[in-house]
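Structure tokens please, single chain.
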Amino acid sequence: MSEAVFIIEWLLIVEAIGFISFPLVARFINLPDRGYSISKLIGLLLVTYLVWLEVSLRISDFGLIAIVFALVLLVIISFRSFDPRLLPRKGILLKSELVFMISFLVFTLIIMNKPDIYGPNSEDFMDFAFLQSLLRSAHFPPPDPWMLVRR
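Here you go.
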């Protein structure tokens, strides 16, 4: 697949998580946009926290099933907290989406032009090591990447 497909896929996932988490965020955030501008961030935080909690308590192994379970739980909680009176105006929504899209595209272009994991004073190798440790672990906390034993 081309890079554009991955970018569009990631963008749609972030938009969906933001849309799902908006009713829950609107309950607690008192901003003119009812928290729509930060619903993507809060949604990503909630999904990752729910996955971490589920895997740390050994309810399930880390993987797609744990992520889908966290998303379904977030959908249920958000659906129960939906209130049509908390919907913001369209103008504010469009401005928020425009800022997000421009920021997303700018940072995507920056990463596309410099995707290297090396450089002076860079911790990217260790970031990559921690990600690999997470992907190889079934439960949290993952093993220390320095102490992984090859089998």
